[in-house]
Batch of 4 targets.
Target 1
Amino acid sequence: MSTLKHKGKGPQALTANGLRTGPVVYLSADYTWNTAFENAMLTEDPLVIARMSEAGDRDEEENLIVGPYFIDVDAETHLPARYRERFRAQGPSYDPGKPTYAELLMKDGAQVIGQQREGN
Amino acid sequence: MYRYDEFDHTFVRARSQQFKRQVERRLDGSLSEEQFRPLRLMNGLYLQLHAYMLRVAIPYGTFSGKQMRQLAMIADKYDRGYGHFTTRQNIQYNWPDLVDVPAILEDLADVEMHAIQTSGNCIRNTTSDPWAGAAIDEIEDPRPIAELIRQWSSLHPEFTYLPRKFKIAITGASNDRAAIRAHDIGLQIVQNDAGENGLQVYVGGGLGRTPIIGNVLREFISRHELLPYLEAIMRVYNRYGRRDNKYKARIKILVQETGLEKFRDEVEAEYAQLEPLDIAVPQEELNRIADYFSAPDYDDVSSSDEGYDKAVILHSDFAGWVRSNLSEHKISGYTIVNISLKPLKGAPGDISADQMRVVADLAQEYSFDEIRATHEQNLVLANVKKSDVYALYQKLVVAELATGNIGLISDIICCPGMDYCALATARSIPVGQAISERFSDPERQRVIGEMKIKISGCINACGHHHIGHIGILGLEKAGVETYQVKLGGDATSTAEVGKVTGKGFSFDELIDAIERMIDLYLRERDTGERFLDTYRRIGMEPFKGVLYGTD
């Protein structure tokens, strides 16, 4: 049984951090974990949410990701509903070092971690 | 400076090897995240909002040029080319990969450094006066005692699973530059009637969601008895400190709930039961540690300040920097150089790897190869000849490290906030930047005078907002950042927790609100008054008036 609790409202996305290097990742429609929020799978379908939940548990068990959880997504803007999650999606507003995740995404496109899974 | 002996070397290496194997076991799945989390935290490794974060210990804020160069190397090799000095005299890296952390710990061990005691419910890195050994108001250098506490507390088996984290700070000066009364235990070196130096012990201070200024637990204890006495306090806390509620688990809550008198009785009873000689440190060992901190070999330079005096007259930028960034040294002809890490557009405490190397070179060339990190997120070269200061200053200018704002309105303490921290509720770095921008005119800053603005991005108060002359707390209300303002906080020997002015401000309103308070202060102040003095004299109401238009 899934340990993930889904209590959200409206469209949901599943997020976590990559285990080895730590980036914020989102489960995409092909059931891989993707660093770009725009590639996150958004759904309100309880069956799909259940499958996402299983994928989150399994990939945590398989040491791909850490701490998966569902987030609410604004149905109109398609951005994370919560303020904190918008920061996780967009990266810091001030980063004195190398480019932020947001800038890297613009430059190199999204990174994918883990093997592609069956989309079931 | 303290140098590792064979035991220290073996201990730190063994620790780093242990963690290497723990990471391997985490990556191959032998350890779950739940099992691994406490282990990584015991080695300073957090999983933050965007990435892992590694916090490296700088015991009592003192380190060498060689160590700074290694920190720069690590920033370049494993992180994003910079580090961030924290309000606990440590340095943290915001972007390391988990797979690299064992190698980072090995590189740290090469220069007698580690990340122990920077996280977890243990006795954390002991903090101290950044001017230790050089300050004119000092009774005694506090670092030998801080080092003694480090050796006693590092992985202390009885105190590794305390109810909550535990912070100790020590000062040897009459002016408190270590915020000792905002710590779980604060120690002040004092002299008794017999002319002997010992420790005055404060207990139960702390910030966070329940800010409390520590009270005197014991007026005087000899240094010989200090460790047994600390052990007695820790035992009482470990036994009775609450474990049912994380937010009530700090010793300040125990002291409040028990009452200071009863708490003192408990400690004294525990102390009476201890056999002090068990862990009381013999004089030879105290002397051995103290020798590492003996005064450097100062030159007799009392009459060679001519070049310095001339440079002050000739170069107004230098003169301005001298006014704010130099502090009086106990030895004539020497000075304490405070290096600001609060440039106009930066984040308080951030320093690039290149700048780290410049500071390392300057320490080696001009200050007996020793650097201090301050809890106000700046750096200090504590023993510089006045005749060298202008040359040093010019090198700081080239490295963009010559911001002349120590103690002024743009010398802001600021936590990483929502930009980096998993606990934050609002951003703090952009607030600090906006205030610095608004008051960027150096002359205006000097006219305003001493001002401590401290910003936290959540109620955990890492940015010390409770004890800022102006404290700012960032909160989230329905997806919007709002900022609560506190006035009248004080981190020094006249410590006080600030009071909330009233309802919060939006980001844009906040900067104007601060400016209105500064203008009020400038209109109302008597000669020589700092913002804090004026506030104490005229009270909250006039400030509320300009904040909320209730005049």
Target 2
Amino acid sequence: MTISEKIVSDFVANDISFVTTVPCKQLAGVIDAIDANDSIYHIPSNKEDEGMGLCAGAWMGGKRPAIIMQNTAIGVTINTLVTLTQYYRMPLPMLISYRGELGEPVACQVEMAVHTKALLAQLNIPTYHFHNEQDANELDAILKHTFMCNKPVAILTDASFWKGY
Amino acid sequence: MIRSEVLKEIAPIIRDQLVVCNIGLPSQELHLIDDQPSNFYMLGTMGLASSIGLGLALAQDKKVISIDGDGSVLTNFGTLPTIANNVADNFILLIIDNGSYGSTGDQPTYAGKKTSLTKVAEACGCEQVVECQAEQTGQAIKDALASNKMTIIVSKCESGNVKVPVITMDPVVIRDRFMQTVKA
């Protein structure tokens, strides 16, 4: 099983059946695995705040959602995270590619990377950082934690975790 | 006819449906006119009424009406291609198009100028798009409900507001009673 398949199998094991994605090179394998999985409705978003709206609706409709996005999206979605997801107390696992870390070839990505954890901390969002492949062994527990506490939860996955691009 | 009059007219028609209502005055007006547990009032996050409504419609079988505004659709323009490409025949998007940002003091929107949201929705691939005058909104909703087909209604009305109190209900209460209604 590839790491992407393992991530999606943890999603399925936790009844996640509605996933919105914004494209990302690092997460392309996960996005493909989600698209290929019959028990998940995959709905690509044009922007991450739109995706969080879709997830809010799906959750109120009885489906467990998740969003897949890049860390740059934290800058896009602060208002939505605060006034929708957190204000109404909704669970949302956010599988995030942590661009701008070691191995990053694009300098501009570092500019958002340096703010990522500070912003998540400021928002009181539980944050987990996958750096080595075995870190993904915690994903199942993180997903259970997310739906237990009804909060948005960030899972940052960096280039070392993905073993380069 | 201004938005609050449109809402007053359609309130009896949408009372038994799941309604996701746009932030600001639309939610405050609907709350004052006919508060129902089947109404999800947005207290923040401009632009996402259509996205929340679509997600809800895709997740379960009951009919869902998102009440949006022209300004909010412009804010979340990416929503129209997503709606067009993820057809939920239990979903109605009602865009009350008064050509202005009502909640912030009636500043004009581009939808009140050269931009036609009806044509944009069609160009995005939405298959059933109905433009009507404010007075016909109730009938347009009845038709959309009867058609069992995903419908975008663009209701052209005049800009203008009435004074309404803010919603003081706790967001978790709004969400919880709404979810109970979804499940019922």
Target 3
Amino acid sequence: MLKRLEPVPAGGADKEDEGLEFDFEGTRISAAPGDTVAAALMLAGIRTTRSTPASGASRAPYCLMGSCFECLMEIDGVPNRQACMVAVRPGMVVRRQAGAARLALTGGPEGGL
Amino acid sequence: MKQYQLAVIGAGPAGMAAATEASRQGLSVIVLDEQAQPGGQIYRAIEQASPQRLAVLGADYAKGSALAAGFRASGADYLPSTLLWNAERKDGHFLLDLSTGAGSRRISASRLLVATGAVERPVPVPGWTLPGVTTAGALQILLKAHGGVAQSAVLAGAGPLLLLLAQQMIAAGVAPRAVVEIGPANRLRRALPFLPRALAGWRYLVKGAGMLRALRQAGVAWYQGASGFWIEGSGEATAVHFEIAGEAHRIECSQVALHMGVVPNPQLTRMLRCEHDWHPTQQAFVPRTDVFFETSEAGVFVAGDGAGIGGAASAVLRGQLVALRIAALEGVRGAEARIPAIRRRLKRDAAVRPFLEALYAPAEEVLNPTDTTLVCRCEEVTAGAIRQAVAGGAPGPNQLKAFLRCGMGPCQGRTCGPAVTALVARTRGVSEAEAGYFRVRPPLKPLPLSELADIAED
């Protein structure tokens, strides 16, 4: 299992300062400044982040440097994002990617199709 | 469209050093990097490192602080979180297409420096796709950038990074459960002939001895000469298995870090159609360059580990050398005066390499995996399927794409490329040079179509 050497800084009582929390399939995940989505999930104990299109096997981040594409996830409705290359922002909504990505009907600057 | 004399791709040690030196020589320089902060992977998150983290990661990592500070102060333009996805020549310039996350844009540069470093060699062993298995580099990134460590981890493979990671984990207070060296038991004996020359690089040998001492003092089990390595688990990794001298071992663990050395990141030099040569002792393709690190494509230079594995100190020196050379080509008088001194330092720094290359040669079992082992992780293509396709007439990696979709998944062959070359060479009984490598085409990474439709020229 993975653990943090230093605790995640907690959000303040002030509503403006909620810390770096995001939603992962209904669970609130706390992140530290500088965390990528992949790192925050791994350090929160999430073991799998997608299933493959070919066989449906479970996968998880492998290289954490943008090379292997194992960490593809759906982030704020956009599929196929490299979770290890995306910095956590408060309130993000992150989902595992099951098999082949669904077409992003709402992605892109023009709101998609 | 903005025009630069030099565009540097990658803000690791080579890129930062080159940009700093080129700016000092008065050139207009832009640095593009996919990460949000400078440092590359070796100095990842160096600007955020706390004193405690620096103590865990060691003195060599801390050297990145001054390099990054010098780069920040250099005056070079710097675009972090930016992907170069295409480059083409037009009227003696390079047109570069950049994806910045908020759409694509185009810039122009007279010369390019590819400073995209190294990637880890794939380690195709049974079970390597299970959750809980990462590269050794990934565990080190968790430590450097996120202060994360793995409890109950087995580090397996071969190479200095494996031992360095073990030492850093020990310093962080979470020692690995075991270090398992895969490959021949007589690694040291094979490397001994190269030791006398390596003594000129004694600092590296002292560092290596320090790693082994840390392992011993922490009581970490260190297995050498392992073969038949595989990872057990249904749904996620739960144990590793291997044999040493006929004796079977099983170690329970929840995390496995694999490593079998690093190779030059080929993506950009391949996309730019640079010639590459097979380097037999590095067991990797290396871009062909002249003595100034200019590739076969005029105006395209390569520095750092991308020009052949040499480590961070050599990366800095190569970056400086390229910057001085380009300054001279741009007409800066006297720019080349320092190059001979840099060459002498490069030679001294490289003295240890033949020893390390012999000591940590990749294990044959990851170059020639068993039939049921997955080689292409994205498309889930096994070694057996590749052997069969080669027997059925696919002469090289590019034909395997058509036969099997091998190398055609989202990673575009980044992960399996070196493994596919090795396997084709062994199956056909030809050299790696003849087996060849995947052809790399733009876009360098997958892009949303909305980006292509919306290229801004500035």
Target 4
Amino acid sequence: MNNIIEVTNLEKKYGDINAVNGVSFNVEKGEVFGILGPNGAGKTTTVEMIEGLRKPNAGTIKVCNIDALKEPQRIKEIIGVQLQATSLYDNIRVKEAIELFGGYYAKSIPAAIIMDEVSLTEKKDSQVSKLSGGQKQRLSVGLALVNDPELIFLDEPTTGLDPQARHNIWSIVEKLRERGKTVVMTTHYMEEAEQLCHRLAIVDQGKIIAMDTPDNLINKAELATSIEFSTSKELDGLAKKIPGICKVNNGSARKYSVSTKAVSRILKDLTNLCYDNNIELQNISVRQATLEDVFLAMTGRKLRE
Amino acid sequence: MNTLIRQTSMQMRLFLRRKDELFWTLAFPVLFILLFGAIYGNSKWEGMNIRSIDYLLPGIVVMAAMVTGIMRTATGLVQEREAGVYRRLALTPLKRTTLIGSQLLQHYVVIIVQTLLLVAISGAAFKTNLTGNTALFWLTLSIGALCFMSIGFALTGLIKTLRSATPIIQIVYFSMMFLGGIFFPNSLLPTWLGNAAKVLPSTQLGDALRAVVYNGGGIGDIWQKWLIMGAWIAACLIISIRFFRWE
């Protein structure tokens, strides 16, 4: 067994609400494990129970074969955590914060290495309150690495960040992945989950509704591919010859879309039709189903609402 | 132990970086002693055997200890709690007891510095002269400091949000200041109010300090005052255990 986390039947109630309702999963050593779901699905509550911040109402948690509910103090030494909010003294400097946190652990990595890893060396003397959102988040990730943990938790590491800052965080996670660190991250961005995670648990209303690699999740869902195109002339009556074709009503004329599982067949029919009638195909695009569509198909709702 | 020292010195560094807090804890009490010294000079209040400024110095020492012990402790804790600092620290192996210890130690050091500063400046400007048992003076002040800090912790337990913190803390602080015999003897208050104000730790600390430095008071003269402050500490401890929350 190479499981670094084993969670079984985890439950957390807030009043009458089952925030987490019987969640079980394992995370293997060296894996980047994503917990994907909409806001309020119970992602944060789940990871915070593993981290020891919240007590579950039921269930068991093992981290590195240690019972996390019985020995939370031992768990703290070996995990690194980035919380959703920055949560630091507002006037502490970057280097000071890293050194302060390093001092809490039996072993720690020198501040210079951490700052280099999260690209904050130039900001080492800046106070936390003067940092940008992306820099704060990188510091937060850096603090999760000070004790050189085997297991790192990242709770929505890129929420609220601009694309540039998001890519910075992604490259940090990619480096951790290359170094064989185990990462558990929550997110409601499917691009993030697809790009970074080896394996994903899709969570909705306190339950895991699917768990697999991103590719398998998409393939297994057997969702239709969407083909979009414009034409040089109106198709009018000819459109009937393509099953499932719809006119896109966003103001631009001669724009159509087809949703299909038989991509090659539709493309063949479409090109033939246009060729025979002397119509030119323009801006043709073929879009495969994404995790967003998988979630929509499974729950009837969008990830971000 | 090492962690306690590191945590305390980091908190001290962060404190020294805040200009507004430096003003309220260090400059403000000094301005007060200079202001009152300038107003009263060498005059005496009726029925008093010491000058007004002699009376005022221990009073301002108590006021300064309250600024740090009550106001700084409570506001700092509420702010950092609301910012999620303690929530983040809960994920590290840092122990809660170390965190509490560092809070007490940091504020205690500030109270000592405030006191030394006030005694020195007042001595230079107005020739106030504290005699009596020095060890007894510091011991009494330390009990008072601990008492104020425990009030700060208890208040943090009772205050739910940062928004409500300032008014609640101000009410406690100002009532302890104006009823605590800081600026004038409680004998000038209506009798019933003066008697009621005797339960306040600020009254007890001020009276005890004056008894030691001007009347050569010993433990026999002030133990009851220690006891009242001790009762406050015990009560605040109970409130803190019941209501204090780190997040």
